[in-house]
């Protein structure tokens, strides 16, 4: 039997514990344990640790764990930011088409008289014209601001524009990641 | 591999993904126990176990059935946990810990007895705490052996280590645990 001085090595005690010794070796070692108090105590201590390890309680998952996993699995792959924007816009397009059909139906059925329609057209045209002016002015002011405060983005022609475009794409990617994480956590 | 797991996997592959929930229920607590032991953080561990189940589901086509589902799944989980631990600490935990070589030595002449009257719960709490503080290579092997009840071969497959290394780490881990428990018992006896 492998021993250091007069006692068993820890490795041999472990092999005995796991029943990995050959029958002859096991008998020889058990004979030794019956006469050596130190080795017997070491083996008993090792056995107690072994029993305690086998008895350790499992750590249990929180309520709804399985459902969370299944929700993630059944939800399928997460759509991209661009796809989600288009998805949301599709509702607006759908609503616009429905409203258009309704208005056309009203007009064709004669619910609006010619004078009323012309008056409505005049007001709508006026509002649209003002809105267009406001948007054009805003774009002009914003562009002037960019040229004044971000000359590096516009001063070198196409390179500047490309730099600006990359910055915008990176910003959108960051927003996409943030939005994605939030959705994932829900 | 377990027939039950194999049956469930066949059903999922046949177009019944909701059956995967049974597989999750069967393995979730053992998986969480392993992840908590490896990461030392319950919330992080629960998130990692979820990720592992989702990843395993997506890769189910790659599961050939040569080994048990558990062995294949715990390898995914183990890799996720190690990646997390590595990112957190900036290096593999297994590389930075001192390895106690006492596992191959002889028993001490004055080895005291682990108190037989030590309450079961007290012993379990002590062991749990000591497992958490073991070097990573011992902690993972001991958890897979005792909690997941894996064989040496299965542990070697999960950890991607030779069987000899698994055996050595299991021996040394147990001896280290025994010594630490003895140390605590001695300390408590002195206090008394």
What characteristic shape of chain B results from the CA principal axes?
elongated
Q: What is the assembly state of the chains in this entry?
A: heterodimer
Q: Low-confidence runs of chain B (pLDDT<50, min 5 residues)?
A: 91-104
Name the shape of chain A in a single word. Answer: elongated
| Rg of chain B computed from alpha carbons, rounded to a whole number of angstroms | 19 Å
Give a short account of the largest sheet of chain B: none
Rg of chain A is 40 Å
**What level of helicity do the residues of chain B show?**
55-70%
Strand-residue fraction of chain B?
under 5%
Listing every helix as H and every strand as E from the N terminus to the C terminus, the arrangement of chain B reads HHHHHHHH
What amount of the residues of chain A lies in strands?
under 5%
Residue-averaged pLDDT of chain A = 76
Plain-language structure description:
- The complex is a heterodimer of chains A (186) and B (192).
- Chain A is mainly α and 186 residues long.
- Chain A is built from eight helices and two strands.
- In chain A, helix 1 (10-17) packs across helix 3 (37-55) and helix 2 (23-35) crosses helix 3 (37-55).
- Helix content of chain A is 79%, strand content 2%.
- The model of chain A is unreliable at 181-186 (pLDDT under 50).
- The longest helix of chain A is centred in the last third of the chain and has 36 residues, at 114-149.
- With 192 residues, chain B is mainly α.
- Chain B has helices spanning 3-13, 20-39, 42-58, 69-89, 120-132, 136-146, 152-159, 163-191.
- In chain B, helix 3 (42-58) packs across helix 4 (69-89) and helix 7 (152-159) crosses helix 8 (163-191).
